[in-house]
Amino acid sequence: MAWRAVGKKGIRASLVQALTVGSRDTLLSTSKCTLENTTRALFTSFRHLQGFHFNSVICGANEDVYCLDNRCLLRCFHASPTLLARRKEDASLGLKMSERWKVLNNGKFSKRKKEAKPPVETPYLPPKLKRGAKSLSDKTIEIFEGMTVVELAKHCGESIATVQHIIVNVGEKIDSEFDPLSIDIAELVAMEIGVNVCRLHSGDGAHVVARSPVVTVMGHVDHGKTSLLDALRQTSLAAKEAGGITQHLGAFVVGMQSGASITFLDTPGHAAFSAMRARGAAVTDIVVLVVAADDGVMPQTLEAMSHARAANVPIVVAINKCDKPDANPERVKVQLAAEGLPLEEMGGDVQVVEVSAINKVGLDKLEDALLLQAELMDLSARIDGPAQAYVVEARLDKGRGPLATAIVKAGTLVCGQHVVVGAKWGRIRSIRDMATKAIAQARPAMPVEIEGLKGLPMAGDDIVVVESEERARMLSEGRKKKFEKDRLTKLEEERTKTSESEEEEVETKPKQVEVPMIVKADVQGTVQAVTDAVKNLNSSQVLVKVVHAGVGPISQSDIDMAQACGACIVGFNVRDPPSSIALAATQAKVKIKLHRVIYHLLEDIGNFIVEKAPGTLETQIAGEAQVLNIFELKGRSKAKGDDVKIAGCRVIDGRFTKSSTLRLLRSGEVVFEGSCASLKREKQDVEAVGKGNDCGLVIKDCFDFQVGDVIQCLVQVNRKPKFVSSESGTVRIEC
């Protein structure tokens, strides 16, 4: 151990002696011999340390580096005091100096000053916006039970990582992108992304049976649709309807004479119920097009044909009222063929049956035609698994709450199941058939009334059966957010279009008055029909704005809302409000319009809108007079005014008033136009002169009268728009 201590002391002494020889300049100017001797002395001392083995020392005579076994030890810079002084002088003069010499001279780096450069004008590039969620109308994808994350991401056009992140946020656990998803989770993910979905249900392994056809009766108003159904059912509903017309969408199961059963949907024929007819065509298998033999093809007949073609549904034509003396079925067939309907008699595939609902003639032929069409279509549906149903109507009952009339399309609907209907959800408390009889379950093609929903759904919504209440709540909340997002997007687009059109037509666009309204009706379908009909009454002068639309009787909250926004309340097929509500409406000066017939409702609303319209000012000729003589008053004093010319006239048409504007015509051309300064009859100042009377008048600043000239009396008239109703039921406001 002694030699180790001596060795360490020797190394330290040698290093101190070698590194403290003189100043920095002396060390740099040391000769190669001194460096060589110092190096040999150092490595002689290193040999006493354990772990260091050096075989030889290589010192090149002309080398810059002294190394041991190819290892760098010392480097000679070959610098002298003279060279160092010259480098310092160059730096003081501002000449370029390397960074290494800056370190040696200053002991630290110095930042180079940046030269000021003039700014460069570059074009502005807007930042790239993130891709927003697509709206409901942009994209629709098909989803099904058991689709994987990869398939869902491909359908939605998003990355797998994004879809996985959304799945985790909704509370679902996944292990890989190939895990199957339930159809409810797939819909939640799609709604979060911003796309619409279409549910597909597989029938593999399901029990499929034949089902009854669903037949929708469509046609023009007052062509006998409900009377035909009454003849088939042996009832008399048409006599009980308000105004003698159908104003609701009804569903019935009719047992035919052959023993088969057919589900019928009765649709209104008035022009205001176009959405109801579209819903009926969307859920049906066959459309019965009823045409009156004495009336022929009418506008709603053509609309029913277009609805059936859009839904790709076969048509069976029933020519009704063939018992009337002026009935002409052949003319009806020619009109239908002219509209592009291929009838069997003309080589097509559309069956035509001549019937009479009053005399019950041809009903057996209509039954055979419907059953034959259903047999050709080979209608069947699965009866096991979750049910698929379609809401045809919804209403609010005072004792039972929200009720939805639906037709089951597939599966079996059972009491106690949790369902999601549009953005509403609930647990089915009871199921009733159309005879209000409680049943435990509903099979395909059965119209039923469902009770137990948490809110009133929209007519046309699909009924989806889910496994638990939690899943029903989650799906309902997701749909509510999606609907609200789409609604706000649509409002923003409409606001943008409106602002652009206002900027373009700021000078030519007449003054427009906004008329707010609150619509209340008995069922959801009529609410939508009345709302659409009221909005169709918009014109260039009046903008009808429906601030609220709901199902049920008029309440105090409706009165408060109407008072706050100055709206008129429109009630259709609702009971009269109680005396307290009527008194509150009178005190708040809120108008309530109650009707049970759509014709009367639209006429009343149309006249109300006409009253609210500001109208347009027009110049009309109120009277004409012919100049018979001219009188001049000269030399008048300054107090009485300047000289004047008086035209002695006789009124040949209409009436002259002193406050009106007068126009002087000569040979049919306008010579002068100005206000009336004086109007006298028999030396008395008068305000008006009627037809056949003589008068004297003075036009302000006009002195060029001639015998035979014609003077017209002009008045400004405020012309109101006109409410127009056609025979087909369509209404409009003409300005």
Automatic annotation (TrEMBL):
Region (Disordered): 483-509
CDD domains: IF2_eIF5B (cd01887), IF2_mtIF2_II (cd03702), mtIF2_IVc (cd03692)
SUPFAM superfamilies named among the record's database cross-references: Initiation factor IF2/eIF5b, domain 3 (SSF52156), P-loop containing nucleoside triphosphate hydrolases (SSF52540), Translation proteins (SSF50447)
Pfam family, one: EF-G_D2
InterPro entries the UniProt entry points to: EF-G-like_DII, IF2_II, P-loop_NTPase, Small_GTP-bd, T_Tr_GTP-bd_dom, TF_IF2_bacterial-like, TIF_IF2, TIF_IF2_dom3
Record's keyword annotation contains RNA-binding: no
Composition-biased stretches (Basic and acidic residues): 483-500
Domain Tr-type G as annotated: residue spans: 210-380
Cellular compartment(s): Mitochondrion
GO cellular component entries: mitochondrion
Keyword list, A-Z: GTP-binding, Initiation factor, Mitochondrion, Nucleotide-binding, Protein biosynthesis, Transit peptide
UniProt xrefs under NCBIfam families: IF-2 (TIGR00487), small_GTP (TIGR00231)
Protein family per UniProt: Belongs to the TRAFAC class translation factor GTPase superfamily. Classic translation factor GTPase family. IF-2 subfamily.
PANTHER family the UniProt entry points to: TRANSLATION INITIATION FACTOR IF-2, MITOCHONDRIAL, TRANSLATION INITIATION FACTOR IF-2-RELATED
Protein's UniProt name: Translation initiation factor IF-2, mitochondrial
Native organism: Olea europaea subsp. europaea
Lineage summary: Eukaryota, Viridiplantae, Streptophyta, Embryophyta, Tracheophyta
